[in-house]
Amino acid sequence: MGSAAAQSLTSEEERIVAIVKGNSPKALELLEKTVNINSGTMNHKGVREVGKVFRAEFDKLGFKTQWIDMPKEMQRAGHLVATREGKQGKRVLMIGHLDTVFEADSPMAKWERQGDRASGQGVNDMKGGDVIIIEALRALKAAGALDNTTISVIFTGDEENAGDPKEISRRDMVDLAKRSDVALAFEATVLDENGKATGTIGRRSSTSWDLAVKGKQGHSSGIFTASAGYGAVYETARILDAFRQQLQEPNLTFNPGMILGGTEVTHSGPSKGTAFGKSNVIANSAIVKGDLRFLTPEQGEQARARMRTIVAQSLPGTSAEITFQDGYPPMAPTAGNLKLLEIYSKASADAGLGPIAALPPGLRGAGDVQFVAPYVDSLDGLGATGKGAHAPGEDLDVRSIEQGAIRTALLLYRLTR
């Protein structure tokens, strides 16, 4: 750390940074231990095992810890919650997750270190982020800066495939948010085109829609006539193309991911189905499964209304219905979120790690922080930096663990003074 950066930190903050650096080897040992435990969402035993490892760390830090089971019918492992209460500064909620996309039958990619890079299952998404949380808190504890603070941590066991109903699987997280002033989430830090770290002040929703279309079955020679109409497939094509032409705007996407059409259509699962039809027969039915993403609740309501209007303008001899299913709510880029990013950016710059710019919301998928964003100022993307998340070659920039822990520790210190 250069002299200019050193002048930007108090002596107490310099001590916190030094503690983080001194603990870096142990931080990587902790990360290696958890990466080598398979914790795919549906591998409940593995998720709980990783939870036990992190729970022991929170216990050492003086947090009150508990494992919250989900109802058996939800088929999810549950969540780890750690809390401490005080009366000083902001009340902070920190969010991570224990599960990965790599299930128990996936080829097990163990931790492998090569210089400044390391690979393994969940190494950056997001066991690296979990370790950053632990190391930031460990440094504050060693510096005596955790005393009298209110900090809650939740590590969910099903972020990669959230259990339904989400009113239950995210209930405990929302309850913690309602008792907090700010929320910090530790999904991987995204680098901009210049290789600089960013922060996430907005994330788009992840919702879905179903389109069901009906037509008159008949001989193909009669299509487009008043008696036969246009058939279900043409009506489906009209609707989808009208979406494309009329709905496009910044931060709004609407993707038809699966389409089935013909005279016999069967939808047999979330991503499966069959269709039968003949080229000389007008199709009588079609279904489409789609995804809808938007940045604010208002944008979402407007998009749904426009989609319903388009669907209602049926071609002759056809009818259609569209229904919507809520998933992850949007995290709107509020003034409060931006202020939180400014504090984080200054802490990073003061530590000699450079300022942090906001990431465009359209560049992130959905995440747990979106369930708490309606209730509290929120900031995401504070985790590790790596490549290939959700892929067999998922890796990590090892240096980002120490850097993330320094930024987080300073942010926590300033929020809780």
UniProtKB/TrEMBL annotation:
GO molecular function: hydrolase activity; metal ion binding
Keywords in alphabetical order: Hydrolase, Metal-binding, Zinc
SUPFAM superfamilies: Bacterial exopeptidase dimerisation domain, Zn-dependent exopeptidases
Signal peptide range: none
InterPro entries: ArgE/DapE_CS, Bact_exopeptidase_dim_dom, Peptidase_M20, Peptidase_M20_dimer, Peptidase_M20A
Required cofactor names: Zn(2+)
Residues in Peptidase M20 dimerisation domain copies: 201-316
Protein name, UniProt field: M20/M25/M40 family metallo-hydrolase
Organism, scientific name: Massilia eburnea
